[in-house]
Every structure is written in C-alpha cells, then in structure tokens.
Design goal:
- There is one protein chain.
- This protein has 352 residues and is of the alpha/beta class.
- It has a domain of 245 residues: NAD(P)-binding Rossmann-like Domain (Rossmann fold), CATH 3.40.50.720.
- It has 14 helices and 13 strands.
- Strand 1, helix 3 and strand 2 form a beta-alpha-beta unit.
- The radius of gyration is 20 Å and the shape is globular.
- The relative contact order is 0.15.
- The model has no long low-confidence stretch (mean pLDDT 94).
Length: 352
C-alpha cells in the first residue's frame, strides 16, 4: 500500500538509520498504538522494518481492533503488526516474550482532566502499574514511557525554555493538576520497577506536536486552526492569544522516540519537543498566511495588561547532545503537511 507519509519519515530518520540495527529482531509491545504517538511510531516501524529486513514484530494493545483496522488498514495489515484486544486498566500478561515495551497509552483529554480529575489520575497510574507488570513478566529489557512536560506544573513566565532538571511541579491542591501529578507518579513507578526487576526504564517528557494524525477537533490549538483554515476560515482563537507553545512534527517525534527506546539512558528523562516558541495568536496568523486564509484570524479577547504570558516550551539540550537528534521540519512545513493530509480522500489517507 502507498504510504503518503513515507517521504517525511525518510527525511526525519536520515541521520538516525543506525538505530534500527539496534532493534533488529525486537519483539515490541506498544500501548497507545491508535493515538497520535502510536500512529507515527507504527508508520516508522512498518516502513523501515520491511525496507531493511529487520525482523521486528510489534503487538499493539487496543480496545477496538476492528476500528483500528478500518481507520488504518495499512498499519493493521502489515505482517509485522498484530493487534491485541485489551485496555491498559485491565491488561493481563500476554503469553509471549517481549524485548521492548513502549507505554504510550494515556487519557490525554483536557475535558476529562477538568471534569473527572480523579479518573484521569487513576487511569494514568493504574494503567502504568499494569504495563509494568506485563513488562516484568515478559522479560523485556527496555521500557519507554511517554510522560509529559506537565510534570513541571506551570512554567515560570521568566523561564523561556524549561530544562529537564527544573525543580517545579504541579500544585497538588488543585484538581486540574491530576494529569501532571499522574505522570509524575507514573515516572516514579517506572524507575522503581526498572531498578527492582532489571530492565531499563527511559522517560520521554513530551510537549506539543503537529502533523497528520493530530485531532482537528480536540484541545490542540494547531489542529483546530488547520481545521478552520481548511474550512475557509476565519481561524478562531478562543483566548487572548498570548500563551507560548512550540510544535515538533510527527515524523521527528517518531525519530526521537525510537532513538530513546534504543539508546536512552535508564532512569533518565528526556524532553521531546521543539524549542521554536510561538504565541497562540502568532500561530493562528501563521496558519492563515501559510494556507492562504483570506478571512485571517480572530482572537476572542484582548490580553489583560501586565499579565505575563503562559509558556509551555522545552529545552531539548539533553536529548540533542546525548542522542544526536534534531528537528528537521519547521512550523510552516508542518502546517502545510497537516492541511494536505486533511484534504486527502479518506481511502488515500488510510492507505487503501
């Protein structure tokens, strides 16, 4: 089947082809395979596995195998991919050994975090406990856990890029901290389990991303803006447009995560994201310009004078220096690619 994302993957992995030799013959368990992270991870795996004759096999845990096959037939039909019906909250040990585990399943829902914070916290922590038990019993030697920059809580406005050793944390007295606190607890569980049972637990603290597979109707600003642009505009900003974010393209995300799985140091956190900060208002204007939206962008309300802008932007120095990764796609390119993918006929995007 023709893969419309293959050129992007080739570019992102150009400097990282050698990691695949370290994963040759791997048996990988992947949770969260139906989401944004999982989609890009599997796109990369299936592409290079076949091309390089790596003999890698991946078991993907999903609550809805039939839906996965319908939405992503190219991935589901790949001979290296097998689907396992299950939920991380009730995951039982599988009757097969694994060499590597990627735990990328999480309830990344702003609505759930706001309305049912306890459910959010319990989902992250209990799901991680289940995956760690499967990791232990399967004999896997490497685990990659996709955590979040939310573990730092609110980034100080005078800190342009948060480093991996930032001492901040979410306010434990606020229900809205459930997602960040859940990720913090899950990181600790991974580290403890790795030390106790002899496997390497590597932590990826992930920030904001762009690219195909990102929902265009959720709480992701760049996805909503591309949706508005494809519909003809205007691009609507719900707030005052002052918060700063940065966006790493999905193909780069996949290259960084696979590199972390292969080479990341155990009991160590690495940032995964872009350092190119942009305000939400500037992002909306950029999407309008790149995609030719004549009606431009509309910002719902004016900023309050004297209020410092919120920031959620990482320093990726450790990840770049220790693992040699780089950002190969700029923001404007990622916007163009998101829009192009969104306009593909469904059968072409799905790989039919």
């Amino acid at each position: 089947m023709n893969n419309p994302l293959a050129p992007d993957l080739d570019r992102a992995f150009h400097a990282h082809q050698a990691i695949w030799s370290e994963l040759r013959g791997a048996r990988i368990l992947l949770t969260g395979g139906t989401g944004f992270f999982g989609g890009w991870l599997l796109e990369a795996l299936t592409s290079f596995n076949a091309r390089l004759g790596l003999g890698i096999r991946a078991t993907v845990v999903t609550r809805d195998p039939e839906g996965f096959r319908l939405r992503r037939p190219r991935l589901a039909g790949d001979p290296a991919v097998s689907l396992h019906r299950g939920d991380v909250l009730a995951l039982e040990p599988l009757d097969e050994p694994f060499t590597h585990v990627i735990h990328a399943a999480t309830a990344a829902s702003a609505q759930l975090n706001a309305n049912e914070p306890r459910v959010m916290f319990d989902t992250i922590v209990e799901g991680t406990r289940r995956v760690l038990e499967v990791t232990r019993r399967s004999g896997a030697r490497r685990l990659l856990f996709t955590s979040s920059g939310a573990v730092y809580g609110r980034q100080p406005p005078d800190l342009s890029h948060v480093p991996e050793d930032h001492p901040g944390g979410p306010d434990p007295l606020k229900p809205g901290s459930a997602y960040g606190e859940g990720k913090r607890a899950a990181e600790l569980l991974c580290t403890l389990a790795g030390a106790a049972h002899g496997f390497d637990a590597v932590i990826a603290r992930c920030f904001a991303f762009s690219g195909p597979y990102l929902p265009l109707d959720a709480h992701f600003a760049i996805g909503n803006f591309v949706r508005d642009a494809v519909a003809g505009g205007p691009i609507r900003v719900g707030g005052d447009g002052t918060p700063f974010r940065s966006y790493l393209y999905g193909a780069d995300l996949a290259a960084w995560l696979w590199t972390l799985l292969a080479r990341g140091r155990p009991a160590r956190a690495y940032h995964v994201g872009s350092e190119a900060a942009i305000s939400v208002g500037e992002l909306a204007a950029t999407v309008a310009r790149v995609l030719g939206v004549a009606r431009g962008a509309e910002i719902a309300r004016a900023p309050i004078p004297g209020t410092p802008a919120e920031r959620y932007v990482p320093s990726t120095r450790r990840t770049r220096e220790e693992l040699g990764v780089a950002e190969t796609f700029g923001l404007e390119e990622s916007i163009e690619r998101m829009a192009r993918f969104a306009l593909l006929p469904p059968e072409r995007a799905a790989g039919r």
